[in-house]
Design the sequence.
């Protein structure tokens, strides 16, 4: 049975501007304006671009995933739009005007203080806790996939790589890793393509690092890891070098002026042994505690 697929008619979907490129397609800002008088709502429309990696089946999975998620900290599903006689489809989502967390932090460096960042971190934690109750692993938790709904609300988005952990296992094994965001990957994901709630916790630690670095491109995870690995390009594979430095206990350095307790949280998320990493509910509690202590 198909989940609730609210239908948007293509003829009423007015293209406005491009928003960006995601895992399996591009997202555009549109107005759904059935009355034709510009009173319709603004929506974010993700068009599937079938290419070698992604198929309609993958896209249908992303639509099915998002359509069952109902959480304040996850971007809202609105419905689907079929075109070319059901040959192509688009995913219609709520449009969040403040855009992705990366752009927002770069633009509002001076406006976002420690308390605000901890609020955002606790909201991402709550969204991940909710995903975990449904046995979903996101697999692409990164600041680029967090949306800013308002000055005090962020939401998790882009469920293109999300998988459901089978009922009889604690993890999901991926067979065909596409373009992997390896600098956000836990060691076991790098070396064994093993994904679990605890590998999402590792990625959450990377998001904490991005947050407290104001998503500054000069110290983003990829750049810092590549500096450590060295740009010796003849290396067999970057992910093998990354696995090695992580095994030798190298970790991303503390962002400048990051409160020590927050860096300690990141280090907990980056325990090599996934059983040692905290769960999202414990992380959420620790963040709330630090928030109370933060006078700022
Ligand atoms: C590929 C698309 N990229 C972008 N999207 C938006 C955006 C603004 N406002 C939005 N409102 C709803 C949605 Cl779904 C996206 C946007 N802004 C810049 C982008 F580069 C995307 O989905 N990125 C993942 C995430 F949504 F988490 F940012």
Sequence:
């Amino acid at each position: 049975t198909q989940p609730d697929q609210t239908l948007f008619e293509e003829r009423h979907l007015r293209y406005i501007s491009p928003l960006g490129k995601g895992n399996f397609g591009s997202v555009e800002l549109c107005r759904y304006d059935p009355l034709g008088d510009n009173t319709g709502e603004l929506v974010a429309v993700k068009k599937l671009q079938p290419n070698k990696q992604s198929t309609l089946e993958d896209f249908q999975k992303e639509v099915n995933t998002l359509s069952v998620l109902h959480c304040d900290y996850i971007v809202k599903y609105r419905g689907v739009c079929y075109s070319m006689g059901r040959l192509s489809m688009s995913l219609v989502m709520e449009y969040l005007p403040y855009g992705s967390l990366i752009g927002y932090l770069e633009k509002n460096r001076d406006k976002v203080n420690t308390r605000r960042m901890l609020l955002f971190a606790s909201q991402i934690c709550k969204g991940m806790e909710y995903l975990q109750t449904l046995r979903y692993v996101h697999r692409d938790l990164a600041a680029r996939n967090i949306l800013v709904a308002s000055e005090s609300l962020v939401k998790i988005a882009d469920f293109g790589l999300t998988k459901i952990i089978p009922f009889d296992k604690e993890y999901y094994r991926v067979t065909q890793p596409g373009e992997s965001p390896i600098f956000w990957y836990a060691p076991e994901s790098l070396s064994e393509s093993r994904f679990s709630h605890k590998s999402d916790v590792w990625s959450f630690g990377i998001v904490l690092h991005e947050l407290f670095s104001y998503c500054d491109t000069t110290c983003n995870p990829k750049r810092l890891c590549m500096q450590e690995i060295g740009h010796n390009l003849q290396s067999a594979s970057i992910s093998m070098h990354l696995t090695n430095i992580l095994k030798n206990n190298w970790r991303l350095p503390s962002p400048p002026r990051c409160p020590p307790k927050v860096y300690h949280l990141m280090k907990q998320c980056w325990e090599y042994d996934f059983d040692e990493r905290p769960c999202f509910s414990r992380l959420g509690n620790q963040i709330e505690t630090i928030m109370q202590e933060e006078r700022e």
